[in-house]
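Case study.
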Amino acid sequence: MSTILKATNIVKYFYEPEKFQVLKGISFDANKGEFLSIIGKSGCGKSTLLYILSTMDTDYEGTLEINGQKTTGQGQNQLAHFRNEHMGFVFQFHYLLPEFTALQNVMMPALKLAKYSPDEIEHRAIEKLRLVGMDEYAMKHASKLSGGQQQRVAIARALINDPTVIMGDEPTGNLDKANSQKVFEIFKQLATENQQTIITVTHDPDFANGSDRIIEMEDGHIIGTHFPNGEHS
Amino acid sequence: MNWKLAFTIATTHLLSKKKQTIIAMLGVTFGISMFIIMISFMTGVNQFLEDMAMDNTPHIRIYKPIELREEKIIAEGQPQTDKNWYVLEHQRPKNELSKIKNGLIMGQRIEEMPEVLGVAPEVSSQVFFNNGPVQIPGTISGIDIPSEEKLFSLDKKMDEGSLEELQKGSDVIVIGKGLAKKMNAKVGDRVSVTTPSGNNLNVRVVGIFSFGIAAWDETKSYATLATVQKIMGVDPSYITDLNMKLKDKEGAVEFKKKLQQMYPDAYMEDWETANASILAGTKIRNIMTGVVCITLLVVAGFGIYNIMNMNIINKMKDIAILKATGFEGNDITAIFLLQSLMIGIAGGIAGLAIGWFFSYLLSRTPFPAGEFFRISTFPVNFKLFHYMSGLFFGFLTTLFAGYFPSKRAAKVDPVLIIRG
Ligand SMILES: Nc1ncnc2c1ncn2[C@@H]1O[C@H](COP(=O)(O)OP(=O)(O)OP(=O)(O)O)[C@@H](O)[C@H]1O
Ligand SMILES: [Mg+2]
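After joint prediction, the assembly is written out as follows.
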């Protein structure tokens, strides 16, 4: 099983209001096709870690390697392109572009990547929306959708470029039981069938217990790793 | 960079905030329309004044000035002190004829030169006009009517009577409108003309003209060369001025130099020197127009700058999202710069239309010119060049005003925003 993401000794400080160490040396690997959950008490640094893993936050110590590339030390534009092609996100607070329709939101990263023609991109975007059960709302403006609906559109957007790694910061935070279950199944399927790596922060024990591996954090440290469904290879 | 995508995002942003977009546009629209109105009117005024003056001003005038001798007259006398010479400090101008030597022949020669459109010979003198007991000072110019018509369109300046009668009749003159008013002379009246040397002639007024320049209309009068030569009591070769028009008026200074080499003794004046005061006025109006236009554009630019800054603060979340999903700094700059430019171009075009409309209205508005100006409505120029430069400067202003906010947008740190 190949390693797709390798974090080595990640250290992060915040300087406001006073110098404060959030992450105190985080190291772990994620494999291709692995479904990984990060859990821990509120404020322990999960989101902070995820932003570093996502390559958006470049202000940290330690090294990060994704898909065989060292991303630590790369320029902003390079990283932007890298994210566009290899990473999909679902943020803790669902973030869509409010002026655009659900469909346009999903298409946006693909139009930027321009790997497919606009027609194909639209077709694929509708597919992804159907996957999260939002295809009927394709033409609705993002600002007119409910929180849970927005979150599902955001998931569809994260999938559009078939990224190597999909990251979610409480991607089911706003969803009811049935929809959470659905998103869980989508992630599971992407991991097993498409061999995409999933890293999610979650407070939902059922969600975490369904994943391949749980990383537990406390106060900026990793304090434990569990394999809820038994360790495989 | 994906311009098409940037363009789509930019237009969506603009259309979703129509009110804000329109307010931003109005700033540019106002600036550009004022620019168009100002520049059309100011250049219209310049052109009008220049045309009015140029119509009657020869490009080059050859004349004989009354002047002082350069060298002092030295009286050699008996040395009474240690000095053995005297200087006459307060010499008087010499009484010379103001005749140009061989004027008519010189005129003919010059007329044959390729740069020259035509030469009008003139014999002019200070005179007193009498209609009744009061003497009114003025000038009389003897002219060659066909060339004066051709070069200075004197025929178009006639309010009453015509130059034909001036040509046909003997002892007849045409006088300026102001002069006619002063003397209370009408067409058909007889007035008396007296030269400084005392010659006197009774002439009949056959026409009244007006140039639209009060100083001229109140003093000038015209008659044929022969009539004036007769009043002055001089021979038919006596010419005081040669007024010429060139094919290219801008070449006047050059051509004057050339002429001066051919006729080193003649005195010549080019139109730029003669019209120095009008040209200075033009310069001042141009500077004023420039200053006002720049101010307007700067104000419009600041408007756009503010609105774009506000726009970017409102759009922080969107910028963060776009960057998080893979848009580069340049893409973000392009999105906001395009918004700014679209505001600039749309506002600019609206400004051109409004500017044109008001210039047109102005050009149809009666001008309270009084009696003397030969003008009925406000002078307004319609030049494609002004409209092009209006659009160009509008574009430049918005480009400049949008650049810095857009650059700032590109620097937004997505983590800060997404963290909430
Ligand atoms: N911009 C910031 N400046 C200073 N401190 C911050 C900043 N953002 C977060 N923190 C602090 O860093 C710590 C970790 O925050 P983080 O958002 O990673 O927590 P979390 O584990 O995601 O919590 P939750 O489960 O509530 O989302 C917290 O104590 C928080 O107060
Ligand atoms: Mg969090």
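Observations recorded in class. The longest helix of chain B spans residues 18-56. The interface with chain A takes residues 2, 5, 12-13, 16, 317-318, 320-331, 414-415, 418-420 of chain B (CB under 8 Å). We will return to this complex in the next lecture.
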